[in-house]
Amino acid sequence: ARSCYLLSSDPNSIVFRVTGHSPGEVERSIHQCLQETGDLHSRREYSVIIEGSTLATTLECFEEDFARLAIPANAVVCCRMTPAQKALVVRVVKERGLLCL
To answer: What are phi and psi of 20, to 5 degrees?
Structure first.
């Protein structure tokens, strides 16, 4: 993602990694990221990285929280996602009136 310039090279930017195998782990990870974005005192850039296996649980159980985290991000990198997951992410973004994520 860095070689494609999706992630900022700015040393002040933050990269959040959403992880977890169980719904509880995913929920804790997303809420920790959301809390940290809320704690940013200045409008600092941040990016989100999420694996396809975690994305499945996220979209099934925590879609609204994922949208709150992902939409304001400068970049969201979804690794190893299926075409169905890609369609779900596009739907989440379009439902909120945005054209791209």
So the answer is: 135, 150
Quote the pTM value: 0.78
Q: How far apart are CA 14 and CA 44, in angstroms?
A: 8
DSSP 52: H
Q: Tell me which residue of 4, 65, 9, 78 sits closest to 87, measured CA to CA.
A: 78
Residue type, 90: V
The CA angle 28-38-11, to the nearest 5 degrees, is 95
Between the two ends of the chain, the Cα-to-Cα distance in Å is 15
Q: How far apart are CA 21 and CA 17, in angstroms?
A: 13
Instruction: List strands edge to edge, sheet with 75-79.
Output: 14-18, 46-51, 75-79
Q: What is the pLDDT of residues 71-85, one digit of tens each?
A: 888 888 888 889 998
- Residues in the chain predicted with pLDDT less than 70, given as ranges, are 1-13, 39-43, 99-101
Determine phi and psi for 28, rounding to 5 degrees.
-60, -40
